[in-house]
Every structure is written in structure tokens, then in C-alpha cells.
Design goal:
alpha/beta; 2 domains; about 400 residues; FAD/NAD(P)-binding domain; 5-stranded antiparallel β-sheet; binds flavin-adenine dinucleotide
């Protein structure tokens, strides 16, 4: 081991939750170390597609947003956390814009607001269909301009708390060498259960094994709930085979694409929330009404050609440029042919318990983002995770900074 490093706050994870925590905390202290096991593009935030929710329209309200969020979560959400999420959405959009993020607008400079499952009013702001990387780049630039120490390719192996010194010991593997960082406070912002996703075959970059946030939190006795509660994304591609497991963004259904069985019958409300839709797709396939591929996969049709019937020619290419390009490269015309889809593992609903200050049950240990439990209850609305990571990431950063200044 090299010489121990001392700092005030260690943040584990450089996705949206970790970066926003670092930016907020840096207003109070410059002794922050932000760790990521790879680089800034290796996060779910970077891969996010469809967008982020905020009640912006005059006919919408943060109360509507809250009710939609609670209904989707089957009223199992922590209501205080859900209220913070939705009430802070408009100001979060302004904050992101102040960092240079530009959400899509129409010719009159009004936001292009899309809709998705379980949403009572159009509320999804996007940056094309690659919202995540359009957000991450300005975040990364901001973090690096604030004098925050960033360590890339730094895998956190373990955390411990020394009850005598009241300090955390964070063991990190940086380029094969173990380093020990002593910190007054730690923020876990490690995202969802990546190792399990890897086993499910998701197309994420390969890593050396690193414990996820739930594992780190559990190891020092922080409360975790429903760690295995998972959300499926209903529309993972089965055919074309070259794009297998690519998720068709949910806002495509918001724009009119429907789910149909092998006979072309719509068997479900295509804008039902994710886990309900997942259950229906599985049921219909088990009942023999799905399509079976030559290599034994099952699926149902997603009628993307309906989108241009509703919105006019060129809509898919203009609004989902990345998806359009991916399919075009496979010589698959999604404006003419439906796509075969089946649910895939998508999001960790369970995780580390936090309160309204993003505090865990261990003093000095904070958490934010997909690694936490409570904001979304039993199912999450599309666009509410990007919101969650910035709302609670920022809260975690401020709370940790206040904590370290008080001890
Ligand atoms: C394809 C796709 C599309 C999506 N689209 C949307 C969307 O349109 N809207 C929406 O709201 N949500 C969407 N989501 C979900 C959303 O992107 C994620 O829930 C959210 O970005 C999670 O952010 P996070 O900051 O909590 O974690 P992440 O962005 O996953 O960041 C986790 C960070 O922790 C680091 N890390 C993990 N473990 C360790 C360790 N042991 N040591 C060091 N570093 C570690 C990682 O390297 C990474 O930097 C999508 C997800 C996917 C996969």
C-alpha cells in the first residue's frame, strides 16, 4: 500500500448522482475525491436515452407529477422522497441548463415535451435520444473545472468506519495498486446492480469486479431494503438480431408505437407502466401468442411504423436520430417494419435506505441515485431516474459538506 490519503469527502461513482454531489459539495470544501472504476462515459447516466421528467407546462403541476410517481410505484414509495423529487424537478432542469445542457426545443423555442407510460401530461425533456451523454459531458467539464480531485480507473474495494476516529477507510484499487483514503464522509453513488446486469448479458463495458453500492453499504451495516427488486425494460430488441438487447426508448411508445401479438392484435395498453407491461408480454408469449425466432427467442411486435403515421414523415429520424441510425446500419427500416421485443433487466428499484437529506443509517455515510431505495417504490416512471440522480445527488453533496464542517 502507498501512503494513506486524507480528505473530507469521498464520492464513489461519477455518474449523474456522483458528479452532482461533487459539484454541490465543492461550494463548501475543496477536499473532495471523486472515484470511478472506469471513466465518465462508463455509467448508466451516460447511456440514458429518452429524457428527464419535470412538470413545466402551465396545465401540469408538481402535484400531478407526484401523483403519477406514487401511482407507478404502487404507493410503496417513500412519500417524502417522492415529493422532494417532483417538487424540485423544474429547478433541477434550470440547474442543468446553467451547466450548459441544452434540452430540445421547437421553432418557437418552447421545450419539446414528450410523454411516456404512466404520465398524465407531456413532461419528458430530452436531448434527442442520447440524453445521457449530452448531460454527462457538461457535468464532467464542470467537475474538472472546480478543482475536485478525480480518480478514474479507481475501483473501490471496501469501506470501513473506524468508530474511535470517526473516519471512513476507503480501499481503492488504482491501476492494480491498493490505496487507502481516510475520509470524514463518504457518498455512495455507484448506480444499479451492475454485476447482476453483467450476468444477464447487458452490453456494458467489461470491468474488473468491484462491489456495488448495496454491497459496500451492507458491509458497514447501513440499512438496505428490497435489494433484489428489479425493473424490467419492456422493449429490449430481439429482432433484428444485431441489435439484440438494445432498449427501444419508452417515448417511442409515447409517440404511438403499439405492442402487438403474432396475429397483429394489440393485447395490452402500450402505455401501461413497465412492470405491468413486462408481465403482460411474458403472459402473452407463454400463452403461445408471441413470435418465436429461429434461434429460440420469444417476443412481441413493437409497431414503430405507427409513429410516423401519427406525426408525419421524418419524425423518427429527427427525434430518435441515434436509434434510426442504429437500425439503418442493419438495413432495417423501422418506419416500415415492426421490431420484435422482449423485456430485459433494466433498473434496481431496491437499495440503500436514505432520508430526505440523502443520509443512510450510518452517520457520515450518504447515498444517492440508483443505488438507493424509496423514491420510486415498486415501479419507476421513465425519466424519473435522471431526475432522481440530480435531485438527490445534489442533496447528498450539500448534506455531506455540512456534516464534515460540523465534526
Ligand atoms: C440504456 C439505458 C437507458 C436509460 N434511459 C433513461 C432515461 O431516458 N431516463 C431516465 O430517467 N433513466 C434512464 N435510464 C436509467 C438511468 O440512466 C440510471 O438509473 C441513472 O443514470 C443512474 O445514475 P447513477 O448516477 O445512480 O449511476 P451511474 O450513472 O450508473 O453511475 C455509477 C458510477 O459508479 C461507478 N462505480 C460503481 N461501482 C464502483 C466501485 N466499486 N468503485 C468505483 N466506482 C464505482 C461507475 O463506474 C459509475 O461511474 C437508462 C438506463 C439505461 C441503461
Amino acid at each position: 500500500m502507498t501512503k494513506d490519503k486524507q480528505t473530507e469527502i469521498v464520492i464513489i461513482g461519477a455518474g449523474g448522482a456522483g458528479c452532482s454531489a461533487a459539484i454541490e459539495a465543492s461550494a463548501y470544501t475543496k477536499e473532495i475525491v471523486l472515484l470511478t472504476k472506469n471513466d465518465f462515459s462508463d455509467s448508466k447516466t451516460f447511456n440514458a436515452q429518452g429524457g428527464i421528467q419535470a412538470a413545466i407546462l402551465p396545465e401540469d403541476s408538481t402535484d400531478n407529477h407526484l401523483e403519477d410517481t406514487l401511482r407507478a410505484g404502487n404507493y410503496k414509495n417513500n412519500p417524502a422522497l417522492a415529493r422532494i423529487l417532483t417538487s424540485r424537478a423544474p429547478q433541477t432542469i434550470k440547474w442543468l441548463e446553467s451547466l450548459g445542457i441544452q434540452f430540445d426545443r421547437d421553432d418557437q423555442q418552447k421545450y419539446k415535451l414528450k410523454t411516456a407510460a404512466g404520465i398524465s401530461c407531456p413532461r419528458v425533456l430530452s436531448c434527442g435520444d442520447t440524453t445521457g451523454n449530452k448531460i454527462v459531458r457538461p457535468l464532467e467539464k464542470t467537475v474538472k473545472s472546480l478543482g475536485i480531485e478525480v480518480k478514474e480507473k479507481a475501483l473501490v474495494k471496501s469501506i470501513k468506519k473506524n468508530s474511535k476516529t470517526n473516519r471512513f477507510q476507503v480501499v481503492v484499487n488504482v491501476a492494480g495498486k491498493e490505496e487507502l483514503i481516510i475520509a470524514k464522509s463518504v457518498i455512495i453513488a455507484t448506480g444499479g446492480l451492475l454485476p447482476k446486469e453483467k450476468r444477464a448479458g447487458l452490453d456494458l463495458n467489461d470491468h474488473d469486479y468491484a462491489p456495488d453500492g448495496v454491497e459496500l453499504a451492507t458491509s458497514i451495516g447501513a440499512e438496505v431494503k428490497n435489494a433484489d427488486l428489479i425493473q424490467y425494460h419492456p422493449t429490449g430488441v430481439v429482432i433484428p438480431r444485431a441489435l439484440r438487447r438494445y432498449r427501444i426508448p419508452e417515448v417511442v411508445r409515447g409517440c404511438g408505437a403499439k405492442l402487438t401479438d403474432k396475429n397483429g392484435n394489440e393485447f395490452v395498453d402500450s402505455l401501461a407502466t413497465r412492470n405491468k407491461l413486462t408481465a403482460e408480454i411474458v403472459r402473452i408469449c407463454d400463452a403461445g401468442l408471441g413470435v418465436v425466432t429461429e434461434d429460440g427467442y420469444k417476443g412481441v411486435w413493437l409497431t414503430i411504423p405507427d409513429v410516423e403515421k401519427n406525426h408525419g414523415k421524418g419524425y423518427i429520424k429527427d427525434n430518435f436520430p441515434s436509434m434510426y441510425e442504429k437500425f439503418s446500419k442493419c438495413n432495417y427500416n423501422i418506419n416500415e417494419k415492426p421490431v420484435l421485443v422482449y423485456p430485459i433487466v433494466h433498473y434496481s428499484l431496491g437499495g440503500i435506505c436514505i432520508n430526505e437529506n440523502s443520509e443512510t443509517t450510518i452517520s457520515g455515510l450518504f447515498a444517492a441515485g440508483e443505488t438507493t431505495y424509496g423514491v420510486h417504490g415498486e415501479d419507476r416512471l421513465m425519466g424519473n431516474s435522471l431526475l432522481d440522480i440530480f435531485v438527490f445527488g445534489r442533496i447528498a453533496g450539500t448534506s455531506a459538506a455540512k456534516y464534515v464542517s460540523a465534526i
